[in-house]
């Protein structure tokens, strides 16, 4: 009997130690210390290979690191052990969801639910998380399952935390905020919930100072909670990109916080890739190139590294290297892993490799087929993620500076399709500007076939004027573009646009006018006056007189005024 007592005590102590180690592994996962978590869970499996939850947690770490095959190995091993094997069906169901096999996933979830006891809640929470974390997420189903978990236990902080994530995915930020707040109220060690409150603040209202304070409050509780440093880094990077005057200051802070995050987590390949993604956000392409080379030393076959080599090579002026790396990346990677930025850099590298200069210094296209493919790649990037068009302004202006007006107009036109375009004013103006200069450089025959593009330019300038009613150059180019349309309606629009230019610029003190403004004002008075000769002779006479005051030597104006006497 004494032996049985000792044996029972030892089993009890072992179970307690195992549970404690599992909780430590969970904390490591939450803190994004994935290497530590994997090491701890593998040790637990080695010492007790009958506990299914350990296999499940380890498989989940691999899923977080996008290593589905390794995750499946552990889930399949764990589903056949004595205790808590059902957790691994949840992991396998998530893989089914990611692979688009929802029916297989639901079969596994049903098998788990049928075996649940009245008070079992954790399995339901992980089922909800499976719907959230799958590559093909279903947030509404996640919400339903997580609410079912809360019906069983309305004090479960992890259920509220996961419910918050589901609501964020469903773009219901008010309910997400409430769920995170409840999670932290029920468990003040659930720092992830408090972290997500700051993330909502940052992402939904761009309230950067408030978000920074939220993350700093977390570090006041636990100075070693790595994810808070990552969020600080990303907040300052976003802030810097929206406040040009403080860009350098905030990017420096962001890079410092991210380095702290890396120190507190690990320098594994997966962490370095996340760091690389951040360096793209921070536009630190020298550091990105260094990071990509370090990743190659760790893993020479992972195709994703080629993505970062391509991005950094392009930004550091190695266009040939960028194109080679991106084409190799696209050839090797699963197509569903491609993102909009990949096609953007593919297009940019092709553009750079097909534009040269002639003896007179004019830009020329050396390979029209590759150039056309480049433009299509840039269009495809926008189709995949419209938000990326916020970066098209710089691309279009570079083409415009190369006098490649037609291609520049296409880039700006794509950018203007974004309803939330941060550069809407300049993209619309440069769209019209590019079309105009492309048109004037065409032959007479080609101009006749280009009227539809002039209509696009006219509409773009209408957008500019709506955004800024006093934008004088918008009226000037609107007048010029309508003049080239050569229809009665267009000539009337031309005159109206010149009228507005005259109203804005003519109201200025004559001594303050620039040389260009004086020249353009003469153009406006002259061309509008020529239109009004037929409809409003007195107005035409007034305009010709004012134009002659600005340019007394203009023979055309002198002749028109003499003819009208």
Automatic annotation (TrEMBL):
The keyword Thylakoid does not apply. Residues 1-19 form the signal peptide. PROSITE patterns: TPR (PS50005). The keyword Flavoprotein does not apply. Gene3D superfamilies: Tetratricopeptide repeat domain. Keywords: Repeat, Signal, TPR repeat. TPR repeats lie at residues 157-190, 522-554. Pfam families: TPR_16, TPR_8. This is Tetratricopeptide repeat protein. It comes from Flavobacterium arcticum.
């Amino acid at each position: 009997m004494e032996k049985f007592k000792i044996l029972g005590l030892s089993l009890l102590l072992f179970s307690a130690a195992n549970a404690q180690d599992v909780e430590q592994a969970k904390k490591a996962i939450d803190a994004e210390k994935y290497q530590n978590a994997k090491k701890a869970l593998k040790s637990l499996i080695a010492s007790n290979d009958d506990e299914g939850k350990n296999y499940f947690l380890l498989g989940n770490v691999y899923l977080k690191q996008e290593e589905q095959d390794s995750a499946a190995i552990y889930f399949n091993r764990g589903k056949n052990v004595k205790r808590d094997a059902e957790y691994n069906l949840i992991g396998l169901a998530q893989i089914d969801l990611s692979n688009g096999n929802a029916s297989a996933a639901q079969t596994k979830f049903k098998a788990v639910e049928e075996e649940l006891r009245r008070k079992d809640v954790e399995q339901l929470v992980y089922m909800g998380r499976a719907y959230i974390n799958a590559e093909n997420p279903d947030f509404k189903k996640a919400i339903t399952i997580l609410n079912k978990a809360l019906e069983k236990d309305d004090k479960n902080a992890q259920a509220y935390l996961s419910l918050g994530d589901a609501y964020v995915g469903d773009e219901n930020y008010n309910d997400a905020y409430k769920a995170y707040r409840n999670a932290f109220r029920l468990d003040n060690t659930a720092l992830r919930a408090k972290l997500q409150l700051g993330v909502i603040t940052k992402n939904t209202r761009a309230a950067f100072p408030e978000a920074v304070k939220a993350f700093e409050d977390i570090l006041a509780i636990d100075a070693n909670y790595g994810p808070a440093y990552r969020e600080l880094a990303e907040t300052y990077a976003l802030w810097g990109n929206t406040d040009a005057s403080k860009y350098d200051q905030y990017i420096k802070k962001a890079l410092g916080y991210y380095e702290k995050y890396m120190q507190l987590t690990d320098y594994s390949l997966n962490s370095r890739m996340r760091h690389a993604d951040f360096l793209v956000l921070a536009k630190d392409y020298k550091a990105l190139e260094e990071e990509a080379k370090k990743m190659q030393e760790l893993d020479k076959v992972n195709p994703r590294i080629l993505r970062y080599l391509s991005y950094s090579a392009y930004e550091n002026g190695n266009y040939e290297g960028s194109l080679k790396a991106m084409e190799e990346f696209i050839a090797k990677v699963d197509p569903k892993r491609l993102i909009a930025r990949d096609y953007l850099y593919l297009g940019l590298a092709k553009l750079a490799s097909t534009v040269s200069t002639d003896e007179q210094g004019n830009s020329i296209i050396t390979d029209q087929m590759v150039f056309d493919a480049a433009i299509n790649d840039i269009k495809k990037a926008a189709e995949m993620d419209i938000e990326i068009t916020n970066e098209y302004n710089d691309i279009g202006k570079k083409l415009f500076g190369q006098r490649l007006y037609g291609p520049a107009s296409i880039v700006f036109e794509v950018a203007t399709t974004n309803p939330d375009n941060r550069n809407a004013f300049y993209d619309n103006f440069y769209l019209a500007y590019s079309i105009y200069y492309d048109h004037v450089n065409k032959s007479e025959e080609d101009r006749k076939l280009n009227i539809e593009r002039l209509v696009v330019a006219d509409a773009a300038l209408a957008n500019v004027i709506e955004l800024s009613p006093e934008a004088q150059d918008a009226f000037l180019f609107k007048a010029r573009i309508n003049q080239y349309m050569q229809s009665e309606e267009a000539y009337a629009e031309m005159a109206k646009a010149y009228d507005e230019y005259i109203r804005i610029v003519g109201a200025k003190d004559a001594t303050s006018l620039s040389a260009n403004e004086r020249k353009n004002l003469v153009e406006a008075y002259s061309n509008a006056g020529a239109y009004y000769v037929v409809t409003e002779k007195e107005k035409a006479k007034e305009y010709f007189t004012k134009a002659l005051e600005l340019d007394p030597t203009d023979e055309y104006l002198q002749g028109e005024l003499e003819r009208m006497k």
